[in-house]
């Protein structure tokens, strides 16, 4: 009954850096497994070039062709295999998963606190170390003092679930000391206490800003801080077709849209939140920047999706997620300039990987210093969002942050980095 655990996930490495590696997952099925797999692939900095998925509701077979988003990325393939295996239900329980699914062990939250001399790009350098260590950032609170020092609070969890060990803690602190160098004044790692709950929310969202950040449609007006640049208008050409005529037991969902980093994750998490089961799916390679997907789906009750209102709701949500899965705006915060980035949280409570890293990388590339930063959750439009708030330091920036053209350039660069363009 089932396969040995070593055969649940197989990775066939590409013969060259240009040739895709093939990731095969063959295990008992569970609700949202495709979403969980795509999230891990995204978390490891990999891009899915094409894929196939099939399931009978009991057993699932997934084949994905993947390449690194960056040529400089060193992929830890053994860690990827372990993470994927941890998301797969136990083979011993393969016939008992209709109503229950096996979840991987969750790591407790730890507080990484350090005080050091500030410098340009510091946040991104620290975030890169944490990502390489497979430490997930849950919350952040960063404050710069008038004398040029910074107090950073990172609430993190360990994807390897080993941070309770002294060896893992020492490894983390040593690598942080390496990147901070002599600028580090203090650095400590401890189990998070009540302060974690105090940092759950985001404090800088007025009703007007929240309405702009979480609105469903983007504006084309240049004065709007989310305005699409001309070569990004192809995002609005996404189409979602629902067809019930080709299969007696399944609804065919056909998607045509512009490609972006994490596209398959965005589609899979939407279907997971709608309790949609993919019986068979094919993700075709990108053609001229566009991606086509054919998905044969069923509702949770095993029936086709015939209700027109449900079809309309699913189409609308998918289009929104493909149009702008990440919201990026610049706002005034008194005399200062703030950057806000938001992404929807899965109903399971899981957020999107690497957002904080990508935003700090974009700002570092632009030469913009970050005076303060925080990550929190906010509820709007009947959904929970993860919000990243940055206060930008104009004193060390080549941009005049009050200038609308400069602001649009910053928004465009941040969004492009997040979308993988």
From TrEMBL:
<dbReference type="InterPro" id="IPR002912">
    <property type="entry name" value="ACT_dom"/>
</dbReference>
<keyword id="KW-0677">Repeat</keyword>
<dbReference type="Pfam" id="PF24931">
    <property type="entry name" value="ACT_ACR9_3rd"/>
</dbReference>
<feature type="domain" description="ACT">
    <location>
        <begin position="111"/>
        <end position="194"/>
    </location>
</feature>
<dbReference type="InterPro" id="IPR040217">
    <property type="entry name" value="ACR1-12"/>
</dbReference>
<protein>
    <recommendedName>
        <fullName>ACT domain-containing protein ACR</fullName>
    </recommendedName>
</protein>
<dbReference type="InterPro" id="IPR045865">
    <property type="entry name" value="ACT-like_dom_sf"/>
</dbReference>
<dbReference type="Pfam" id="PF24926">
    <property type="entry name" value="ACT_ACR9_C"/>
</dbReference>
<dbReference type="InterPro" id="IPR056805">
    <property type="entry name" value="ACT_ACR9/10_C"/>
</dbReference>
<dbReference type="Pfam" id="PF24914">
    <property type="entry name" value="ACR10_N"/>
</dbReference>
<dbReference type="InterPro" id="IPR056816">
    <property type="entry name" value="ACR2/9/10_N"/>
</dbReference>
<comment type="function">
    <text>Binds amino acids.</text>
</comment>
<dbReference type="GO" id="GO:0016597">
    <property type="term" value="F:amino acid binding"/>
</dbReference>
